[in-house]
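In line with agreed milestones, the collection of sequences with tokenised folds has grown. One record among many is set out beneath this paragraph:
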Amino acid sequence: MDSRRTLSLLQDDALVLDEPISDWVWVPLHELSRRAHQDGFKVVLVGEGSDELFFGYDVMSGGARDIRRFQNPLWRGAAALGAAALAPVYHRVRRGHRRYDLLRRARRGEPPYLGSSIGFHHSQRHQVAGPALKRSGDRRRALAFIESLYRTFAEGSPLPGDPESLVSFVEFCTKMGEVLLQRVDRVSMLHSLEARAPFLDHELAEFCFSLPGTLKLPEGKLKGLLKRYARGRIPDAIIDRPKMGFSFPFKEWLRKGLGASVESTLRSSRLFSEGWVDGPFCRRLLAEHRSGLVDHAPRLWMVYSLARWYDRWIG
């Protein structure tokens, strides 16, 4: 995909999905589905579920480490002190909230791992939320959902004390229905293409959730069990190649021509003028990103996607 075609695609009102999507993978997925349909394919297999069931993300390993840290009273005490001391700083700054919010959650006794699809942490809510959003809604709704997952896991899992299993369960329940499956279904069906996810076979999923992390991660390797099983069945070059995200260079293109289009949306969208999201704050994120100082691309995509959806479907 080149940047001009991508810009044209993002500006096409007919392609604004009926729900905002929190990552930009739907864009290359749209192009792949279009080409598959042109080439005569009617059904395709997709890998959704493999990372969540077989522990395929670095962030999941970090989440398991955080859970173990929360189990240490000394670490929690130090984290609480650090959160209290840093609170005035993070009330103002626009970066570093992932690490700070971990300390804040330790101080408040909240769940250590929230899933990998967090754009703006709780400690940054006051910065990104506009006045209308601040006046409305239940601020604990998302936290209550995560807490319910922790309770469900503790009550029903055969491995309630296994951090890796807990992380897999949270990741599966937060990402599969909210992001991955709706994304692939909407985009593939847009091109009359049926997508099937064999890793989501319910017996396979139940089996994976019965396995402790030590078996899923032999020698600490992500997806180690799945790779061990695949050895001899598919070429080693596929098994051993570095993990590659299915993406397009949104981060880089934001600093080029795509940045002007995103800035125009951040200035004109009713999402900001009606007070749901703070426009000046989001434009400062974009300016920082375009200067090369920091990578705000995931957060900028979330706001941009939400704004495009809001203008297309709301009101």
The mean pLDDT is 92. Residues 1-24+247-315 form one domain. The longest helix spans residues 163-190. Strands lie at 43-45, 194-196.
